[in-house]
Structures are given as C-alpha cells and as structure tokens.
Design goal:
There is one protein chain. This protein is α/β, with parallel strands linked by helices and about 190 residues long. The chain has one domain: 3-Layer(aba) Sandwich (Rossmann fold), CATH 3.40.50.360. The protein is built from 7 helices and 7 strands; from the N terminus they run βαβααβαβαβαββα. It has a 5-stranded parallel sheet with strand order 2-1-3-4-5, with helices on both faces. Helix 1 crosses helix 7 and helix 3 packs across helix 4. It is globular and about 50 Å long. Bound molecules: flavin mononucleotide.
C-alpha cells in the first residue's frame, strides 16, 4: 500500500516533519510492512497566494495539480499539522485553497491519520479538531488522530522516538486505525 506522508508546514526545521517521519516508519514497522512511504515537502510546492484574479488570468499552478495527483495516487494519508493561531499554517491553507479549485473533494476519499506536534502543552487541539471536522466535507475520512505537546520533552532526536508512554500509546492507536484489518498485535475493532 502507498502511504503519502507530509507535514503541513513550510518550516525547514519542522517538528511536525519529525513527527510525521517517525510515525510513517512506525506504521511500516508495526502496522503495514508492505507500506511504500512517500514523503512530500511543502517547500517543493510553493505557489503564489490564491486569488480569484490570478486564477482567472493564469489558471491553476502546476504544483497544485501535482500535489492533488499525489493524494490521488496514495492509498492512505498521514499528515502532521503545524498549528498557527489555532488553525493550519498559511502555507498549507494556500495549497489547499488552490487544490480545492480542482475538486472540493480534494482528499479524494482517502483514509487519513492526522497528527500535530507543538512546543506548548495544548498539542494542536485546535488544528486537529478543525481538520477532523472539516475532512468529510473535502472528501476525507479521518481514522485516527494524535497530538503531541511539549515537543522538546516529548521527542528523543537521537532515537527518533517518542519518550512518554501516553504519547506512544496515542500514536500507536491512531496508526492502527489507519489499517485495522492489517494491524499486527492489536485487537480487532
Ligand atoms: C504565527 C505562529 C502562530 C502560532 N500559533 C500557535 C498555536 O496556535 N498553537 C501552538 O501550539 N503553537 C503555535 N505556534 C508555535 C508552533 O506550534 C511552532 O512554531 C511549531 O514549531 C510549528 O510547527 P513546525 O515546526 O512543524 O512548523 C505558532 C507559531 C507561529 C509562528
């Protein structure tokens, strides 16, 4: 199965990138050993801020089509959302808006797990809640979510692993929910 994984941020030192990487490798190790992981970096899809005038003048940027097609080619999506002012980053919202002009159902029916890493204690509660609520409207099916707060204390960069048991459990159950029929060592749901 093809797993598309990305952090919804354009930070080059992204903590959400760290989280989505460890989660994707854990998914392959513990849930679907046949997973083929593709990571995307939003910086490779940078485009001007959406405007109806730009769209009318020049149409949709090829990067929006390219990202949309990557979603379409995947069997499942693993996304870690950076939280900016309680919502998604401007970088992701911009790409999202452009893609929504291809098709409002831009998640294309894919099963998704959504994650968030934050430096503070709220663990991306705002962005996770909004994305879970909105996903069905955009053709997405959120199977699980996990927010990891106080990232510096939560993450061991040398082991590329989560330190706190409660975070490990939250991530494991979110990932298992992405492919319950193939999960190893988890009770049927
Ligand atoms: C404009 C801005 C707004 C932010 N708003 C929030 C917020 O609402 N909640 C939060 O937990 N952290 C917030 N932060 C801190 C981010 O969580 C932090 O920068 C984090 O590293 C972003 O994830 P990333 O490294 O993957 O880009 C904000 C940061 C910036 C620059």
């Amino acid at each position: 199965m093809r797993l598309l994984a990305f952090a919804a941020t354009n930070s080059r030192r992204s903590i959400n990138r760290q989280l989505v990487e460890l989660a994707a490798y854990q998914f392959k190790r513990d849930v679907r050993t046949d997973a083929q992981i593709e990571f995307l970096d939003l910086n490779d899809f940078e485009i001007p801020i959406y405007s109806i005038d730009r769209e009318n003048e020049s149409g949709l940027p090829p990067q929006a089509h390219a990202f949309f097609e990557k979603i379409g080619a995947a069997d499942a999506l693993l996304i870690s959302f950076a939280e900016h002012n309680g919502f998604v980053t401007a970088a992701w919202k911009n790409l999202f808006d452009w893609m929504s002009r291809i098709d409002t159902k831009l998640w294309q029916g894919k099963p998704m797990v959504i994650l968030a890493a934050t430096p503070g204690p709220r663990a991306g509660a705002g962005v996770l809640q909004s994305q879970e609520l909105l996903a069905p409207h955009f053709g997405g099916s959120v199977r699980g979510s996990a927010g990891i707060g106080r990232w510096k204390e939560a993450y061991d960069p040398e082991k590329a692993a989560l330190i706190r048991i409660e975070d490990q459990v939250a991530l494991s159950s979110a990932l298992a929910a992405l492919a319950p029929e193939h999960a190893q060592g988890t009770a049927p749901q």
